[in-house]
Write a structure and sequence with these properties.
Number of helices: 2
Amino acid sequence: MSQEQQHVPVGTIALTFLAGAAVGAVVLALTTPKTGKELRGDIKNFGNRLGEKARELVDANEARA
């Protein structure tokens, strides 16, 4: 490898992490014995929290620029 350091944008790392977390949460939700109504509520709440975290990360990244 060369001496140069390769920089990966923070947004790419954050997006990858969030995508992995989302996949894990969906697998967990689908394998947990709950009623359909409870499961839909959990997925909706998770989506809302994920959206809030994504907005926070975007805002933090824009503040750096």
